[in-house]
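Reading group handout, session on sequence-to-structure problems. Before we discuss, look at one worked example. The prompt was deliberately terse, the way you'd type it at a terminal:

> structure Undecaprenyl-diphosphatase

The input record follows.
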Amino acid sequence: MSDLFAALLLGILEGVTEFLPISSTGHLLIAQHWLGARSDFFNIVIQAGAILAVTLAFRHRLWELATGLGQPANRDYVAKIGVAFLVTALVGLPVRLAGWELPETVTPIAWALVLGGLWMLVAEHFAEKRGDLATVTWKVAVLVGLAQVVAGIFPGTSRSAAAIFVAMLAGTSRRASATEFVFLVGIPTMFAASGFAFLELAMAGGLGDEDWSSVAVAFTAAAITGFVVVRWLMGYIKAHRFTGFAIYRIVLGLLLLALMPAGA
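And the output record:
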């Protein structure tokens, strides 16, 4: 398999999994055992391709917020996006500077998939008992920011799953409202993460070592497939629960634990 074709497959995989609550990073790390290991920069930048997709998918909502800052409700919503982003940055940046790296074995990812799937089932059950609440509170904003950090530290957790279900438990029980807020918070979060990774690579003198053609192919593939998936997901969750995604996570995690040798 050519390197560019492998990058294309990884980009498509990223676009499909970034917005579904099944862990894009976990799937990428698993896939790279067969398609070839990639740098942290590659993984983060193609996630930015998927975030470009959500920017395009929510372009009307973003324009509404940007042009409607004179309205208190819009200012409040934008401020909460800013708070969630700042919490992620202030807590997550020290973790990154401390030298945190993605795991090199599948086992911790498999356990995160299983435990995350169980967490989704429990969280959605209790969230539905709160009724159909669409309001995003300051508490939700702070907890979404923290959830993003936790998901970044433990690949397989899923940034979207962790943040969406924290939001639903903390007060925004309507699936579509919680998902929209999490996706909008993800725009500055992932673009900032990609920019920081690029700066780290540049300061280390590693820009010349990166396979930019593979990065470009994967970025483009992630953006295109991500756009399709996010449009589909926002329609799907209006009438369906997240149960199917939770079951998928549990089954995949158990299969990996059963079939992959320890330490693989």
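Points for discussion. First: The chain is about 75% helix and 0% strand. Second: The CA atoms of residues 117 and 137 lie 25 Å apart.
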